[in-house]
Amino acid sequence: MPFTKKLQKFNATIRTVEVGTGDKTTKLGGGNTLPFYTFDAPTANTAKIGIEISDLGLAHEPDCIKEVYAGCETVADMAKKAITIEGVDFLCLKLEGGDPNGENRPVEELVAVAKEVADAVDFPIVVEGCKNVEKDAELLSKVAEALQGKNVLLMSAKEENYKNIGAAAGLAYNQLVGAESAVDINLAKQLNVLLKQLGVDSGKVVMNVGSSAAGYGFDYLISTLDRVKAAALGQNDDSLLMPIITPVASETWSVKESTATEEDMPEWGSVVERAIDMEIETAVACLACGTDAVILKHPTSIATVSKMISALS
Amino acid sequence: MALTGIQIFKLTPKKNCKECGCPTCMAFSMKVAQGAMTIDQCPHMSEEAVATLSEASAPPMKTIKAGFKAFADNKNDSEKEFALGGETVLFRHEKTFVNKTRYAVSVCTCMDDAAVDARLASVAAIDYDRIGDRMYVEFIAVDCGEGAAPDAYAALVKKADGAGRPLILNVKDEACAKAALDVCKDKKPILNAADASNYEAMSKLAADASVVLGVTGASAEELYDTVAALEKAGNKNLILDLGTASVKDAFEKAVLVRRAALKDNDRTFGYPSIVNVGKLASGDSHMQAALAALFTMKYGSVVVMEEMSYAQALPLYGLRQNLFTDPQKAPRIDPGIYPINGGDENSVCLTTVDFALTYFLVSGELERSGVPCNLLISDAGGLSVLTSWAAGKFSSGSIAKYIQEFEIENKIKNRTLILPGKVAVLKGDLEAKLPGWNIVVGPTEAVQLVKFLKDMQAGGQA
Lengths: 313, 462
Ligand code: SF4
Known about the structure:
The structure holds two protein chains of two kinds.
Chain A: E1 16-21, E2 24-29, E3 48-54, H1 63-68, H2 75-82, E4 90-94, H3 107-120, E5 125-128, H4 133-146, E6 153-157, H5 162-172, E7 176-180, H6 185-198, E8 205-208, H7 218-235, E9 245-247, H8 249-252, H9 256-259, H10 271-289, E10 293-296, H11 299-312
Parallel strand pairs in A: 3-4, 3-10, 4-5, 5-6, 6-7, 7-8, 9-10
Antiparallel strand pairs in A: 1-2
Chain B: H1 5-11, H2 25-34, H3 47-57, E1 63-66, E2 82-85, E3 102-108, H4 113-123, E4 127-130, E5 133-136, E6 139-143, H5 150-161, E7 167-170, H6 174-184, E8 190-194, H7 199-209, E9 212-215, H8 220-232, E10 238-241, H9 247-262, E11 273-276, H10 277-280, H11 285-297, E12 302-305, H12 310-323, E13 336-340, E14 348-352, H13 356-369, E15 373-377, H14 385-390, H15 396-405, H16 408-411, E16 416-419, H17 427-433, E17 438-441, H18 449-458
Parallel strand pairs in B: 3-6, 3-12, 6-7, 7-8, 8-9, 9-10, 10-11, 11-12, 14-15, 14-16, 16-17
Antiparallel strand pairs in B: 1-2, 4-5, 13-15
Residues 12-13, 15-20, 22, 25, 28, 42, 44 of chain B line the site of iron/sulfur cluster (SF4).
């Protein structure tokens, strides 16, 4: 008997969320197969890549990133440079300087940075907070207000502050809401339901179901992504049909494989190569499990992952 | 597909003789269907019925043994050969994946001697321990380039064999394949040689040498037909090569083959797979890293690269280790003293649980702080801090017992111990149990450790 391909068809499609305005937009989600299973059905959208820059500029970045932005004086300059890098679909501005345990920059200052960046580039923008739930509640709400009309994605609303961020971004200022939960399908679902009860349009929500670097508890992320996609597509679970965005760079650039110096680990070789491959392999593993968009940092990683996405499309 | 009790009953002699210990043939059949008894416990079963039943109850994907292990995977590993395939599920949350992806680097008759020597020498360079598992390059692929003579190929195979790893013989010419097997068949190489045009001859060579045969096909359909023909001829010691036509094509085959075997119970595709990312992205080390990760996630049993650098290996082996863990059981770290940033007997101590994820988060932040310290890991049941505390496995008693059993006071002179902030309640009790120790309550989240330790250091406490 000859082999007959049995196709896996789903009756559900991941919602498409468009970030940005005018002709400079990017669409996240829209798939109706498991990741890259184009043989099962033609897929509408392919995975997207964002490039991460920080309000702190380049002071904390490794040399290989400083080189990319050589000559840039301001964060807005960096933004202009970032969006010209091959393979980049959207810009991600991280307002990490707001962290009360770090630089603790005031909200007004950070909002001004976000405004400056948004005015400098005509490109889809994601704004990430500082991870402190209280500060982010105020910060991201103010950013949502300041960037009205730009259709930006604000990351992230968590269980502790979704009411503030969801209300500001999703209701008052008509932006897109990132919903972040800790590597568990039920927590992801619960937060999406809460946002809906708050009145946020589910079509404007993108999920971050957690992130980690390859080798660092990545098993939990694999299973969470696999299960979310299976439930969304297989059971048409409306509260899980949001596209998934995974910040990869913020995890991979701090692990020891990416930071240990060549003096400390001579046998490991180039630290730049290590950081790039850690970023690439983590991003690919996330995409293979169902992430619709990854956020990366190094141009070589972005070019490689972009090329692989094209090869599989 | 597992048979139902009724289907099994139809195959029994229906004598109800009770010799199997069951009151009736039907009762026996139900037990077999549940897996409580095996078919050979009925002495009256016809040979034909036994054959049908054992075929039906065989696992959907075969476990193929090949090569030899240069090193044991870990201290619990006593297998001498590599087991490939044998998976039962498509996703790790359903059940543990059983046989992890293995990695190979390549040499070719088209390379000059110096390049071959350098490549083979590089194989030994990747060798390190990660949470108890030994990470190294497990196979070497030896490519027979276009027009290479049997002598030349055999010479390269001999040289590659000298690197101490089992070989994958990528060869299409029969004379070359024979010459190569003559050199290394005792080491159980994989003869990756068969396609629709040559499978009969190659299958004979593989069977005579009793080695695994690799099979490829221009399409999934052609591959399937060739496997079916090989099985018909009696060769079921196979591995499926996903081909090098394109990334898209190899990925499609990887999924179709595995899905046909595990979801649709089509045993013709119930074999492990081999994918050559070195050929799919020749000369592009970053793309090979990307594809190695892709095919580790999706169904490559052996992934062949051109070479393996630490940059590629570190995330890849970490990814594999995570992917192939038991989803029901949290990975654990062995209890012990873990010095960080050159911590010694005078460095401050911190303690946390043996849950691997916690250990990685905490040790990562400690490394970032740059402060020399000792991380003391006790047996806390492999659970997170709060869960193990709630379960009584991470208590003042368990920590004090660990300090005693591991003779911490003889090994470390420093008497400051930092507790996870989440178990601040243990402070008083611990002070009572560990006289002479200064018990300090640390932050509740690992990310706050950098600042915490730096502040302590600035204050002269660490
Ligand atoms: S031994 Fe075989 S024939 Fe006898 S009762 Fe059991 S199943 Fe039936």
